[in-house]
Amino acid sequence: MITWGWTGMAHDASLAVFGDKKLVFAAHAERYSRVKNDKNLNQDLIDEALEYGDPYKIYFYEHPLLKKTRQLYSKQYALLGKESPTTYIRKFLKDAPKCTTTSHHHAHAGAGYYTSPYSNAAILNIDSIGEWDTVSIWTGFGKTLKKVWSQRYPNSIGIWYSAMTQRIGLKPQEHEYILMGMAAVGDPNKYYEDIKRDFIKMIPTRWNPYTLFKRNCHRGCLDWRPDLNTPQDYADIASAVQRIYEEIFDGLVLYTKYATQKDNLVLMGGCALNCSANSIAYKYFKDVWIMPNPGDSGSAVGCVLAHWGHHIEWPGPYLGHEIKGEYPVEKILKQLHEKKITAVASGRAEFGPRALGNRSILADPRGDDVKDLVNTIKHRESFRPFAPAILAEYASDYFTGYTGPYMQYTATCKRPDKFPAIVHYDDTSRVQTVSATDNSGFRKLLERWYADTGCPMLLNTSLNIKGEPLVNTREDADRWTKQYGVEVCVPLE
Predict the structure, then answer these.
(1) Residue 177: burial class (beta carbons within 10 Å; 0-12, 13-18, 19+)
(2) What's the rounded Cα separation, in Å, for the pair 155 and 173?
(3) pLDDT score of 75 more than 90
(4) What is the pLDDT of residue 493?
(5) Domain 2-105+302-315 maps to which CATH number in 3.30.420.40, 3.30.390.50, 3.60.21.10, 3.20.20.70?
(6) Do 107 and 291 meet the contact criterion of CB atoms below 8 Å apart?
(7) Which CATH architecture has domain 319-489?
(8) What mean pLDDT is predicted for residues 405-412?
(9) What pLDDT was estimated at residue 7?
């Protein structure tokens, strides 16, 4: 029996397919439409999902009517949609069954807990907003999820972070990761007190989880300090914002521990992509699980699991469109040994924002000029670093701190002088470990590269240009090669 879950109509549309209680397909609408953060489903995505069979049941990731009450409260009249999820989906699938809805944060909690290895855990959701909730704490025990606390709109850490992203000249709800990267090149002390004084009324503690703001940032904060306009001003603001976010995050995680008394933590919501902060969770919990797609698009999986109320075997993040054939190890190695920057599009596309070896640009991390070359190709800011993908068994030899298979934490590089392309200004790296049970093709490539060079890692970044979705199909890969002059290695047809 086929079941669908989907997100969309606001931003980051996605669709997940379950067959016989197993997750068999999940993909982002933007990868098919080629429109970044596309809020709309499209027929190409629907058609690929239908290859698994017609859906018997369809779930949607939030309660539209409850969301409308918040939009009316905040006077966001232009955002009030008239279509129901069922009416919308029937534009693509005429005989689609009626959509069953769940709450936004319940879908986050379901995506995290029911894909985790835990049967007993705390769940912390932090995002901009879902209906009325902006932060929520849940417990998971066996098959049961229970909400124990929530913070309500308009007090939102995520909205504030997005507003500050806009304040420094970036695109809100898209470029927050750039603010996070800018933080390392700024002075956190310069505007720290100013930002706390002007925006923050209360920061969470062990005894009180609430974050209270002095102003509603939902419409931005472009009027704040109009005298600050230089690149260094923006970097200093970013650094202070990141520090304050980490203080807030620390308080929330501490309260979650106090309120739940659990040993394991599931961290979800768009703010779970803040890899610079995520390691803080280990101060209070023995183990942490972050589903590789913790934001709204991942709730295509979560809205189904929230209703089912049981764990599934996590199949890994390679769930999207498949470029069939053997992973092109030899071709990639040839490119790398010729000191070229290369790329790969092979196997199933990653479900989530991070390229993990199937839709990746790859390079030798030891070159002094590699970082600048790749940033030029991707049309990115020069200060931004790249992630290393490393054979898991060697990670502790090169990095200190928490690492994992999905680039969710930052760790300190022990030899930043040897690997300048994958370290930030503070000598940290967003590490992807690749074990023998992970992506077999990418693992084989790293093993061969290590055997040839003695270096167990490669620079790994997403196969896209800034502002564009990741390459999805073989045709996308061919166009990318022609347009940007870097060969994308694909399997032989």
Answers:
(1) middle
(2) 17
(3) no
(4) 75
(5) 3.30.420.40
(6) no
(7) Alpha-Beta Complex (3.90)
(8) 96
(9) 97
pLDDT of 111 > 90? The answer is yes
Cα distance between residue 143 and residue 199, in whole Å: 40
Which amino acid is located at 451 in the chain? Answer: A
Over the stretch 272-303, which tens digit does the pLDDT of each residue have?
999 999 999 999 999 999 999 999 999 999 99
Long-range Cβ contacts of 275-278 (<8 Å, 24+ apart): 275/180, 275/407, 275/408, 275/409, 275/410, 275/430, 276/180, 276/183, 276/242, 276/246, 276/410, 276/428, 277/242, 277/245, 277/246, 277/249, 278/402, 278/408, 278/409
The two tokens of residue 90 are 């029937």
Write out the two tokens for 158.
């995520």
Tokens representing 387?
Answer: 């992630």
Q: Which residue has 């859906």 as its token pair?
A: 55
